[in-house]
């Protein structure tokens, strides 16, 4: 029998003379999660399907070299600021800041030197893996020296907890998430997956995936209505946008200032009878269907369920303002609940 909550480690590669480690969190349900110290990245989530066969339900690479050249943020920890900041700039307390322009004229996912490109230090405390990395004042244009700590903990109930803590010596915008691409069936695309989102409102966005500032009621926009389970491929045919799939932010119907862990979305596939539920203390979830995936993976072969704060919040005063860290105060949680067939069939 597998020992409860074990964490194994091995060498995954070397960057600039430093070892990149692979950690394997294992529970007593034959579930395991692999994490590499480069980018605090989730490499795989392995779970028994309805026939008892172990399968990986996220997209990932077998070689470190592929993560180094990856442009799709596969499984990575995203920060300082997840998603887009318009015109790669913002004003805070009367001062203007210019950021990396890595998405046309905009800044995306923290710029060229976001945390997805950093090698994290590590320590293991009982059943918890704790990874940490630093970003210097001015890196990517952001103010303040900050330390990001990411903890991973896999319970025997197949709950993967991700705890995020930021400490900083200056006030600075922060918006951290995980960028795993889920594919529960192993098919070429996720178009047959069913999705339910605990949301009545979606942010209206322009052709550059930036919010306009308006909120749309999903009841009046059937292509975005996932209040009940809908097949992704069928539902997206009802909307008219620049991309075929989704790159849309859905607001939790719970109070956005509520700090409790709340369920944001559920993804399931009839092929595997595995489902993933996403919980977070943050106020909403970005649904991205991987339209721009390239290289080893084709378009629409994975879907991201990114719990984070509103896109472009530093430039939208009426959006949720929990993104500013100052001192030792910024803490958020994301939890993936991975439900095996035997648990709900």
How is the secondary structure organized here?
Elements: E1 6-15, E2 18-26, E3 32-36, E4 41-48, E5 54-56, H1 64-69, E6 77-78, E7 84-85, E8 89-92, E9 95-98, E10 107-108, E11 121-125, E12 128-135, E13 146-154, E14 159-173, E15 177-178, E16 181-182, E17 194-197, E18 199-205, E19 211-217, E20 230-231, H2 232-235, E21 247-252, E22 262-269, E23 274-280, E24 284-288, E25 303-307, E26 324-339, H3 341-344
Antiparallel strand pairs: 1-2, 2-3, 3-4, 4-5, 6-15, 7-10, 8-9, 11-12, 12-13, 13-14, 14-26, 16-25, 17-20, 17-22, 18-19, 18-21, 21-24, 22-23, 23-26, 24-25
Properties at a glance:
single chain; 345 residues; mainly beta; Beta-galactosidase, Chain A, domain 5; nine-stranded antiparallel sheet; six-stranded antiparallel sheet; 3 helices; globular
Q: Identify the overall geometry.
A: globular
Number of helices: 3
Specify the structural class: mainly beta
Output the CATH topology. Answer: Beta-galactosidase, Chain A, domain 5
Give the strand content: over 45%
Global mean pLDDT: 93
At the first level of CATH, what is the class?
Answer: Mainly Beta
Q: Could you say what the CATH architecture is?
A: Distorted Sandwich
